Amino acid sequence: MRNPSFAASAALSLLFSTPAFAASDSEIEAVKAEIQSMRQTYESRIAELESKLTKIENQKPAGQQAAAPASGSARESARNIRDNSFNPSVGLVFNGRYSGFSNDNSAFAGFAVGEEGERGKQGFGIDESEFNFSSNVDDKFYGSVTAAIVREGGEDKIELEEAYVQTLPGMGMPKGMNVKAGRALWTFGYLNEHHAHTDDFADRPLPYRVFLNSAFNDDGVEVSYVLPTNFYSEIGGGFFRGDDYPFGGSSGGGFDAWSAFARIGGDIGDNQSWRFGVSTLSGDAGGRAGNGDAVNFSGDSNLYAADLRYTWAPTGNPRAQEVILQSEYFWRNEDGAYEDFGVGTGAAPFADNAGGWYAQGVYKFLPQWRIGYRYSRLKSPDVPLGLLGSALDSGGYNPDAHAVMADWTNSEFSRLRLQYNHEELTRGQGDNQILLQYIMSIGAHGAHKY
Length: 450
Description:
- The structure is a single chain.
- With 450 residues, the protein is mostly beta strands.
- The chain has two domains: 4-51; 89-443, Porin (Beta Barrel), CATH 2.40.160.10.
- The protein is 14% helix and 46% strand.
- It is built from four helices and 17 strands.
- The protein has a 16-stranded antiparallel barrel with strand order 1-3-4-5-6-7-8-9-10-11-12-13-14-15-16-17.
- The longest helix has 35 residues, at 25-59.
């Protein structure tokens, strides 16, 4: 069969594109008839092909029919309704900064601090860039992985920050109950659950740096339950291997650490909200390293925290203006011994308390601009002068730090921050710091916790 489209195009071109050609009425009618004939031919051919397709489908053996999804297959059901739940979310977070310090001394009086709790290096550097991958496994489970790219000892390393699965409502457990297993930023205080790039300041407050080495993310399992009350109330707890700071060395026989928490919250009118929580984290420290492995603690470690957070949107729209007030108090009790801390005195028994707190306020005065202030303070252990040698002797001094920041958020995917710190971690050793930070993200990223 000839190509009707070509014939029609040629006829019309010949009719209308040649100036010297003067078409009569009869010739125009002939072209119209040709076009109508081609239309009928196409429609007839399409109808014929559709008829053949119907006959072939009706003659297909029953055994070759496409199998319907089993009633128990949530993944196939989701595909049939064109659900997007099982498409993985993949994202990258770039977190870098420039740091400038006025003092070379950054030791904490009275405390042995882990590597992540130290102030970091001066100059340009990648702070902690993250790769995250998460998705529903099926109708009963959700999985997430976060890997952090860091630079330690002059080498770039990939650290597994989180790799966990947790239950979904389809699991059939009581409404409000959730189980999470694997490695995660577990529930303790307020900040511990949050990734560093979501913080309101470029660094973590002193209590987190000293007591948690910035964050606790051991291997374990946690159960939480949102109570059926008229206001927000949640309880929970977990069991952990005990490898991560503040324990730093499990026996390998099971769970050497555990946690428990409770928190409540609610709204005040339409523009205000609040949340209060208490939590504990306890376990056996099996050679916890600090101060560059110069100090090792073994014994019982019990850490307690109370946190309070308040938000207020003056205009009723937190995207336009918002005030956030936040504070946490830590108290630690330990009973054991410090060993091999490089002062020639051998092991030293230790049984004492230490504490710390911070309070901060952040004000969003324009949709893209925020300013904030934070004060942190530690309460050093009350050990006699010289008992543990110079490595841990506080001399009766309690470290503190001030932080002032301003940041500009172009969108939910990009933020620039300028921060000034004044830290005095050892008596008479003031340190003025300038931090310039950028946080950029690409790809999908889950919603941040309240």
